[in-house]
Amino acid sequence: MGYNTASAPVSGIGVLDKSMAVVRAVADAPRNLTELCEATELPRATAHRLAIGLETHRMLARDAGGRWIPGPALAELSASATDPVTEAALMVLPRLRDITGESVQVYRREGAERVCVAAMEPATGLRDTVPVGSRLPMNAGSAAKVLLAWAETSTQRALLPDSTFGERALVEIRRRGWAQSAGERAAGVASVSAPVRDADGEVVAAISVSGPIDRIGRRPGARWAADLVAAADAIHKRLSSPH
């Protein structure tokens, strides 16, 4: 999937947004200057100035062909970063995996994509492997439905036209408190997801159970919705407790 400038967050601080556009474009694929301008839609002089500046701060580097690639400072910063949602999820996912015997994941939305920030697999049997860091579309799957059901109206309007589900489905998901899907994102895979709330009660992630349709059926919510909602609540309590 190519870098999508339309889905990138905007802070309103021009030079910061342009710099992040350069970093995200290079993270998507190595870029020479022409490719960087095409990916970011920035003027050539601006793209070059920002890329050189980011290279000076080691946020970008060059490959053997002279193209910009992510720099070592990004890895150094990410190594020291902590995400409270991920930390709380990793304390809760093992029990959910053991209860269901299936793959479990936590996703957060970034623009028009959802990112897997935590995942655990059963010890044996067929798995629905979604590696941490995987970026999946927001137009299909139970986790996408959950994240969009509690997203702001402008985000829903932007993403619903390309989705396999509509506004009515989101209304039902908010009423019921969870979502399920079968064969939407990947053929033969079903999943059920519930919203994860932070200390303020805002939905910040979706927790999911997924596996082969042949084993978990086309309506996995009937089996695991209650366990999934309980796991989401356990994460919420951890995020709400004082540290």
Description of the molecule:
Residues 73-241 form the IclR-ED domain. Residues 13-72 form the HTH iclR-type domain. One of its GO terms (biological process) is negative regulation of DNA-templated transcription. This is IclR family transcriptional regulator. There is one protein chain. Helix 5 (84-100) packs antiparallel against helix 10 and helix 6 packs across helix 8. This protein has ten helices and eight strands. The chain has two domains: 5-80, Arc Repressor Mutant, subunit A (Orthogonal Bundle), CATH 1.10.10; 84-240, 2-Layer Sandwich (Beta-Lactamase). 46% of the residues lie in helices and 20% in strands. It is of the alpha+beta class. A six-stranded antiparallel β-sheet has the order 5-4-3-8-7-6, with helices on both faces.
Task: Reconstruct the topology from this structure.
Layout: H1 14-28, H2 33-40, H3 44-56, E1 60-62, E2 68-70, H4 72-80, H5 84-100, E3 103-110, E4 113-120, E5 135-137, H6 142-149, H7 153-159, H8 167-176, E6 179-182, E7 189-197, E8 203-212, H9 213-216, H10 221-240
Antiparallel strand pairs: 1-2, 3-4, 3-8, 4-5, 6-7, 7-8
Helix pairs in contact: 1-3, 5-10, 6-8
Précis, in short:
The protein is an alpha+beta fold and 243 residues long.
Helix content: 40-55%
Q: Largest sheet, if any?
A: 6 strands, antiparallel
CATH superfamily membership of the largest domain: GAF domain
Record the strand order, biggest sheet. Answer: 5-4-3-8-7-6
At CATH level 3, the topology of the largest domain is Beta-Lactamase
Radius of gyration (Å): 20 Å
User: Which CATH architecture of the largest domain would you pick?
Assistant: 2-Layer Sandwich
Outline, from the CA principal axes? elongated
Q: If you average the pLDDT, what whole number results? A: 88
Q: How many independent structural domains?
A: 2
Strand content: 15-25%
Which CATH C-level class of the largest domain is it?
Alpha Beta
